[in-house]
Each structure stands twice: as structure tokens, then as C-alpha cells.
Design a protein that fits this description.
The complex is a heterodimer of chains A (83) and B (189).
Chain A: H1 9-20, E1 24-26, E2 34-39, E3 48-53, H2 59-71
Antiparallel strand pairs in A: 1-2, 2-3
Helix pairs in contact in A: 1-2
Chain B: E1 6-15, H1 22-30, E2 36-41, E3 44-53, H2 56-68, E4 75-80, E5 84-85, H3 87-94, H4 98-106, E6 128-129, H5 130-139, H6 147-164, H7 167-183
Antiparallel strand pairs in B: 1-3, 1-4, 2-3, 5-6
Classes of the chains: A alpha+beta (83), B alpha+beta (189).
Chain lengths: 83, 189
């Protein structure tokens, strides 16, 4: 599925960072506030998901939260090259 | 003049939901959780906050109230960082070496008695309460940042209170407490 770009550049970069580590995008249903969801590479209900806001209170903080959780994902196996 | 606020980072561990849904996301955002990231890991929901507030306690309590005000069946189970710590955890949080912490916490002939582990007292993986350890390290000049003691104490007390809200827990603990008090010398029915 092609995903829309996030309107905030810091968050968009964090999403690209996630994708480089095997995370996938999905729509957040018909949510009014969630831009979408990211799912880690673990295929199953035990995996990780992150719900990304369209307009978080402080976008820079939200981008850092996303990166921290990608780095802390227990299911990631591979290198850590940043895009 | 606006009161001075600071940015506080913490995580709320929730119960009541097992996967993301638009109703949860919208309710959390509208309840004021736009400063948090909603995470599901192994079907456990977490909210990671970076919240501006006057105090850490105010930041956490306002977040708990916001989550539970959504009336979507979620409750806050506990606040992290984890209040229980192993030797490597202590080393990382206090910025000391593992060997130094090992010597301080379990080594023979230590000058000032260090806190007693809360689990696995005689085992290979003892665990301590971070609030007690931080306070002890500060008192003995091993910790340079006193705010770590305050943070640990606030989180420990909020966690104890969150646990106490469970009616079964509070009922059982009240019974035990009454037995203990009534058993004290000089206390009569």
C-alpha cells in the first residue's frame, strides 16, 4: 500500500527510519486524529504497533517518541543504518 | 506570570485494550493525550508521554486522569520507568560501573549497609526498589543528580496508589494491616 506523507518533516523522517527497519504502514480506520499506524516486522498479534498523530502537541517530541520505540522494538533483527 | 513548567518523560502501562482501534485513538487524542505515543506490544497498550507540567506528579496524575476519562474501559496499571531494578539497571541509571554497583549492593564488608533486595534475597538475580537505592546512593555521595531520588519516590508512590485502587488488593491489604496493628503490644480490641 502506498502511504501518504506525514505533513510534519520530523515525523516523516521518523517514519522513513521505521520503514528502513522493516516497519509497515496501515491506515488508522476512519480516525480523525491518527495519521496512521506503523507495525513492526513481527507478523503476529505479539508484535508492536505505533499510532501516529496527524497533529501531535509537539511534533519534534512525537518524532523522538517514534524513533525511541523503533530502537526499543524487541523483534528487530538487522543492522541499524539510518536513512 | 506563568508558573515554571518542565518537560517530563514517562510511560503509562494500560489494561483493557489488546489492539489499536480508531475509537481508542480519537478518544485519547480528544482527552488531551496529543503529547503521547500509543504503543501496543504483545497486546499490551502503553502510552509514552513527553508532558509539560509544573511537577512530575502533576504530569503523571493528569495523564492518568485523561486516559481513564475516555470511558473506553482502559485503566492505568502502572507507571514506568520500572520501580524495581537489578544491578545492571542501577549501574545504568546511576551512571556507575556494574562492578562498582555489585560491590556496593552485595559485596562483603561494605561500610554503610545498603538497601535490602525486595526479591531473590539470596539468589543470583536480586531486585531492589529503585527509590530506596537512589536515596541510599545520594546519601552516600554515589549519585550526583538528586532529582533522580525525587523522580523515583514519586513514581513508586503513584504505582503503590494505582495498585491500591484495585478493590481486591485494597480489601486484602486492609485486612492484613488490621491484623498487624491489632497484634502490636498494647493494642486491645
Amino acid at each position: 500500500m502506498t502511504r501518504p506523507r506525514h505533513p510534519n518533516k520530523d515525523i516523516e523522517k521518523a517514519i522513513q527510519y521505521a520503514e528502513a527497519k522493516g516497519w509497515r504502514y496501515s491506515k488508522a480506520g476512519n480516525s480523525s486524529h491518527a495519521w496512521g499506524r506503523l507495525w513492526c516486522s513481527y507478523q503476529g498479534r505479539e508484535g508492536c504497533s505505533l499510532s501516529i498523530w496527524s497533529t501531535p502537541k509537539v511534533p519534534e517530541h512525537h518524532a523522538k517518541q517514534i524513533r525511541r520505540n523503533i530502537d526499543n522494538c524487541p523483534h528487530f533483527q538487522g543492522d541499524s543504518d539510518e536513512p | 506570570m506563568n508558573p515554571k513548567t518542565e518537560l517530563y518523560h514517562f510511560v503509562l502501562v494500560l489494561t483493557g485494550w489488546s489492539e489499536p482501534h480508531e475509537s481508542i485513538e480519537d478518544a485519547l487524542f480528544e482527552a488531551g493525550c496529543g503529547d503521547a505515543l500509543l504503543i501496543f506490544r504483545n497486546q499490551v497498550p502503553y502510552l509514552e508521554f513527553d508532558r509539560q507540567a509544573e511537577t512530575l506528579e502533576e504530569a503523571i496524575l493528569s495523564a492518568v486522569q485523561a486516559v481513564e476519562a475516555t470511558h473506553l474501559g482502559a485503566r492505568v496499571l502502572r507507571v514506568e520507568p520500572n520501580p524495581l531494578v537489578s544491578i545492571p539497571d542501577i549501574a545504568r541509571r546511576a551512571q556507575l560501573s556494574v562492578e562498582q554497583v555489585e560491590r556496593l549492593m552485595t559485596g562483603p564488608g561494605q561500610g554503610a549497609k545498603s538497601p535490602t533486595p525486595v526479591f531473590d534475597l539470596n539468589g543470583k538475580c536480586p531486585v531492589w526498589k529503585w527509590a530506596e537505592v537512589a536515596n541510599w546512593l545520594w546519601f552516600h555521595h554515589y549519585l550526583s543528580d538528586v532529582s533522580l531520588v525525587e523522580v523515583a519516590t514519586v513514581i513508586e508512590n503513584i504505582n503503590a496508589t494505582l495498585e491500591w485502587r484495585n478493590p481486591e488488593v485494597s480489601y486484602r491489604r486492609t485486612q492484613i494491616w488490621e491484623k498487624l496493628v491489632l497484634c502490636q503490644p498494647g493494642v486491645r480490641n
